[in-house]
Design brief:
303 residues, Rossmann fold, Bact_Chemotaxis_MeTrfase, single chain, methyltransferase, transferase, three-stranded antiparallel β-sheet, 10 strands, 2 domains, protein-glutamate O-methyltransferase activity, alpha/beta
Length: 303
């Protein structure tokens, strides 16, 4: 039996006009901006899905994806368009800064749980790294201090992988044996799984960073958002970061990827860490709170 020609023949490249329309849709729905010079990233994912569906025209598939009833198809396509490059403890200086911050929390007399958030968690390595760090530090205390870590991403497949917590042995390369012995258990000869007691402290859920205003997270002590905003336009990066600041608890720590934003400041944040780290601590009293308190004091004096 002969195979359909759309399987055996190479599909034509997107024209500039077709690419522009696909790029506009992709940016509207994910925030990522892919320039013409990196068009292969977008085209490869689109073509792969077109072949699965037996569609051989870019315009026909774009029309399908744009239909109001095509949410499930868009969710499927997005799996081929998102980058999942990540690893455990990817940027060590950032975790050193987080460790110092957590130590300061543990030295206080706080009673509420420590809450952390991994934004754009992909397949979960960053989220589990945060959980391992917290678990190590909390276990050294002479009192019980609960903690939770939430990982969010736009990709349902990546989140499913993260929830399973199963990784190939090669993903542990370079990790301290104290970590691997404590937090991983073997699954056959080639894979390992996150240990059950750590899984109890972690949850994963789908969040599109373009819709942070709908996200239920708030009053977070620690937020990691690294290597997510690389392909976002500057104005959108600033908008997302400012929304993360709103969800940060007073005194909380926001850790971004080095180089993801420059020449930027926020009235409620103070930079922390070494020059290799892009991290900010939220002031105990925000600029808005100071203004309101000043106004209240002035009003009280007038009365």
């Amino acid at each position: 039996m002969s195979m359909p020609t759309w399987i055996t023949e190479r599909l034509p490249d997107m024209t500039r006009s077709q690419f522009d329309r696909w790029q506009q849709l992709f940016e509207e729905r994910t925030g990522n901006h892919i320039g013409w010079g990196h068009r292969s990233i977008l085209q490869a994912g689109v073509v792969r899905r077109m072949r699965e569906l037996g569609i051989n025209e870019h315009d026909s598939y774009l029309e399908l994806v744009n239909r109001p009833s095509s949410n499930m198809e868009w969710a499927r396509l997005i799996e081929y368009l998102t980058v999942r490059e990540t690893r455990f403890f990817r940027h060590l200086p950032s975790y050193d800064t987080a460790q110092e911050f957590i130590a300061s929390l543990l030295a206080s007399d706080r009673t509420r749980p420590i809450e952390a958030w991994s934004v754009g968690c992909s397949t979960g390595e960053e989220t589990w790294s945060m959980a391992m760090l917290l678990s190590q530090m909390v276990s050294r205390q002479d009192r019980v201090i609960p903690f939770t870590v939430t990982g969010t991403d736009i990709s349902l497949e990546a989140l499913a992988h993260a929830r399973r917590g199963v990784y190939s042995n090669s993903r542990l390369f370079g990790l301290d044996t104290a970590l691997t012995d404590r937090f991983f258990q073997s699954v056959g000869s080639r894979e390992v799984s996150i240990c059950p007691r750590l899984k109890e402290r972690v949850c994963f859920t789908r969040v599109n960073v373009l819709n942070l205003d709908r996200a239920p997270m708030g009053n977070m002590d620690l937020i990691f958002c690294q290597n997510l905003l690389i392909y976002f336009r500057r104005w959108r990066r600033i908008t997302i970061i400012e929304q993360l600041v709103e969800r940060l608890a007073p005194g909380g720590l926001l850790v971004l990827g080095p180089g993801e934003i420059s020449q930027w400041s926020h009235p409620d944040l103070e930079p922390v860490g070494c020059e290799q780290v892009l991290a900010f601590r939220k002031k105990a009293q925000t600029a808005r709170e100071k203004l309101l308190n000043s106004f209240s004091a002035m009003k009280a004096r007038e009365e």
